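U., I forgot to send this yesterday:
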Amino acid sequence: MQHQGSLAEQPPSVGILMTNLGTPDAPTPAALRRYLGEFLSDPRVIETPRWLWWPVLHGVILRVRPRKAAPAYASVWTENRARPHRHMPAYGRRTARR
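Result:
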């Protein structure tokens, strides 16, 4: 026997998990290279075997991506050099209103 108002009668919920795993120290290729090197070296982020991933990371990604991504980071960097992660609470509030 089901009770009125049971979980089976309620519509499914939708959730959004917003996380920030860090930002570079500056919107420059050098700072992005350091940040991406640390972030993408974490085995919890990239689960590919290290012997396979390491040459891809150091041979391709860290040589190409920082230079290409720096303008995008610079476009969202604030005038007082505040890092974008400081805006995460506002992003969360705007997302919750939708």
